[in-house]
Specification:
37% strand; alpha/beta; 2 domains; 4-stranded antiparallel β-sheet; 414 residues; 28 strands
Amino acid sequence: MFSTGRKAKRRGERGNLVVITGLMAIPLSMIVVMTLELVSLSSEKARMQAAVDAAALAGARELAVAGGAARNASGFAEEFALNQVTDLAPRVTMNFTAGQNASGGFQVSGVGVRGSFFGNLVPPGGFKIEVSAVAEALNQQPLCVLALPEISTPGLRAGSNSSIQASNCLVHSNGHIATTNNAAIGAGTIQATGTASGTGYSPAANSGALAVADPFIERTIKRIGACSGPPDGDFVVSGTVDTTLPAGVHNRTVKVEGNGTLTLEPGEHYFCRLLMASASGSLIGEDVIMIFDGNGRFEARNSATVSLTGRTSGDWAGFVIVSSRDNVEQMVISSPKVDKLLGTVYLPSALLVINAAGNVAEASKWSVVVAKDVALDKNASLVINTDYAGSGVPVPLGVGNKAGNAKSGARLRQ
């Protein structure tokens, strides 16, 4: 009997232990689940913070580019931040806002809400994640090379030991940038709306940048009816002849050959057809702009010398070579002696080809290139100087930077 009572007592104790253990398991499980949730919440907040940090820096860098304030840096930064944390979207509802704050910094803020315990009762409405970052641009940087292609095309490409030397300004493509066969691009900043492939970038090229709008899109270029009549006879300068060409409409082919020299008189020169300098000819001009109609094109070949200074006043002040928007021709520089292109080269629908072993535009105080596509090859080097203050040719609104030669950058303020 004593043995039977002891057994019953032990069975009762074991039963109590099972009940106690079962009762303890519920809160322990809840503690484990809550701990895991809080760890996950901390990780999600860290991810969102990293996203707004990166987006604030990207927005500040955009504002550091001349004319950046006119572009939608806010929308770009908001989308940039969201793209960094898309994998959190199924469990966290997120919203990002971006813009320049009162102190001049670029601020990106994010709010995320995720489910909490007991049907969002603890805490009420769910967990709320709040993050913020402020970045500031160190200074502004000139825009000196801009390619305006469709996003699917390179826009800016360099091959066969060619290079762009633009150490104090921005080189940007609204499409892609590609370097091949030991080509190099050196600039203050290098960036592409698409991708940057190849090597030889200094500093490293940035991909996925905000597109830069055509700064001269509102300009009227084409002169309706200017080239509608029958062409005049060819105008050829050859031998050792030294002659001048008055400003105006040139509805004829113009060639400089041999050792001849053609001096463009100051003003606006509107070319309906080919303008070519070849052999050892020279094409020079001060205070000039060359505008090429839809069928006009420019070629500098062989060992021709080209030295041009852009307009100092008038509607085209600051420009040196321009093509109409329906002009899809190639503008070709294949002479190593194109030493001066002082001003802005604007080819909104045309391709600029530079393929001669020499330094193009090196003698210019400053140069800006805005073209649909820019292609360099065969050891050619495009040299972009930025001595804006040292030139009598004014910089057009939308490119360059009156502040001088400054390196750009951005840093997190908080």
